[in-house]
Amino acid sequence: MKITVAGLGPGDKNYMLPLVKNALALADVVIGYDYYFQFGKEFFKKDAELISMPLGMEEARAEKAIEKAKENKYVVVIGSGDASIYSMAAIVYEMVAKQDIENLELETLPGISAFLASGSKLGAPLGHDFCCISLSDLMTPWNVIEKRIKAAAMGDFVTSLYNPKSIKRHWQLGRLQKIFLEERSASTPVAIVKQVTRPDENIKITTLGEFNPEDVDMFSLVMIGNSQTFQFKNYLVTPRGYLNRKPHTGKEIQQESFRIVTNHIKDLKCKNQDKWAITRVIHTTGVLDDHQFYKSTENAISNVHNFLKNGGEIITDVTMVKAGITKAFSAQFGTNIHCYLNDEDVQELAIKENITRSQAGIRKAIELHPNALYVVGNAPTALMEITDELRNNTHFKPACVIGAPVGFVNVIESKEQLSQVKNTDWVLIEGNRGGSNVAAAIVNAAYTLEEASTYFEV
Questions:
Q1: Active site (annotated) includes residue 338
Q2: Which residues of 387-411 are buried (b: 16+ CB within 10 A; e: fewer)?
Q3: Residue in 115, 94, 150 with CA at minimum distance from that of residue 10
Q4: pTM of the entire structure?
Q5: Which residues pair with 322 in a beta bridge?
Q6: Which of the following is catalytic: 170, 283, 369, 395?
Q7: pLDDT confidence of 458, banded at 50, 70, 90?
């Protein structure tokens, strides 16, 4: 006992697979929708029993196939396209499983489905992810179908529509068009393929906005492109991405990251120099909304850029900030970077004055480098030392102060003090956020300020 479910392809015998032709030639019984017999008649065995049934009798066809197989006959159940796609395979297997018939062999032979044949005729519309949706609600509730339509539209799938329209089902296709237009551009290519591979084949390419459901009948397949699909001559092309591959070198990955960030913040109401500093900060933290914590005096980043370009020195509160400043940048600009945290005299000063080593290191730096760029990425006590000196030491005139200490004790207070400084430029990250990597990122932004024009309009 054996039942084979076979797809005849879309219509043209040249699209029928050889293994299907062989099965038809061996079949004792062929069962199917009467319209389909014309496409396989030349391959039937001369004495084969042909049992045709109209549309709507799929269950009866499956029952008849089981009945004939029990008579020890080789039965082939035919369907158009691929018989496992919206065709007879599912009901045959379901009914055999329900009856739990022993020793009944089942087989499904593939066929070229209408969406594959249409895809070939159209060139390359199926170059990326795609899906098929049947608009027939005879066995599937419309609310379920509509969920699938919305998912396909939102997921940007190339979408092929089976059973798009009939005499009684005339409004569903228009509803689908409305749903897709909520997610896709009106210029999205749409193809209507009628009677694919058959003598009356007709292909019309239009757009989602211009698409007219009245152009579609029950012998049509509708294919909607995704957001990347474009028309080339009489073809539709959906790029796979070969010409727009993902970045893989370190530089390419960084540039793509910058592009993502700058696109996110492009509408911020601030200067490009600050947008660039924000870009470097977000690239470091990975948090796109960190732009809201960045504050600076006017032209601080530009002024720091010019200061460094002219050989200015940098003071950091901890070695991690020094390590985070890109060596290639500091070497290019000839920058000397100092951190006195671990100097022996600094440790002695910290013990003597009962202050932190970071604070003591800054105190030493102010004596030696009163005009340097001061960068604090860890210790709020270091930042407080700087702000105190700015109020009381007339000889201390730093090029700028970058304040990004991180933590919970005195952090917010130290940044508030910096924000009230009037006699020097400053950049800070508000709140508890910050860190050595963030402070270094702001310095790196100043070094590379000229790159900002690559990402922001001047």
A1: no
A2: bebbeeeeebebbbbbbbbbeeeeb
A3: 115
A4: 0.64
A5: none
A6: 283
A7: low
